[in-house]
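Look at one such:
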Amino acid sequence: MRILLIEDDRVIGSAIRDQVDSEGHSVDWVQRLDAAGDALAGAHFDLILLDLMLPDGLGIVFLKALRAKGQVVPVIILTALDQISDRIAGLKAGADDYLVKPFDLDELSARIGAVARRYGGNPNPVLTLGDLEIDSAARRITRKGRAIPLTAREWVLFETFLQHPGQLYSKPQLEERLYSFDAEVESNTIEVHISRLRKKLGAGVIVTERGLGYRLGAA
């Protein structure tokens, strides 16, 4: 997924960015709401991680404005505001989840995965594809009981196809899922990842639509 992190604390922001990046996601980190608005105007994001107290305004006001414009991108609030009234206000403003600082980074990863599954249309973490059994919560794939390890980027790429089985993805769309604005992406990166997925999961797991892109096939 491509994730927009809006957090002004450098220590917390660095820790979240590193955690999310280690999971294979693309992270764009901004420290102000005006920069967040510019980022959203220039790219598609699959998830927003939103602090509520920013130097140039309140995150909850930003969230309300986002929802008023019809933006449906999922939002997880990350804040030190821990009162029940704060949680209720955040959820009523349109947040999909609310996590109080300090929090465990592994819990954040689990919350991100849960929100992604809900928006992908299948909240069940266990799926089957051909003879593959896929546990998206545990990031585990098995075939006849034998585990098939994927790298973080391979997993995120495969999960993208799983969440929208009938959708055709172009190469630039897949690059956006894996890499942030400032990342250097080699021209054949997506082809390399897809080739490795096919070797591990089956030649037909991802189908190439020549000149158009890729879509989920059968393992």
Remarks:
- Helices lie at 10-22, 33-42, 59-68, 84-92, 105-119, 152-163, 171-178, 189-201.
- The chain has a mean pLDDT of 90.
- DSSP finds eight helices and 13 strands in the chain.
- The first strand starts at residue 2 and ends at 6.
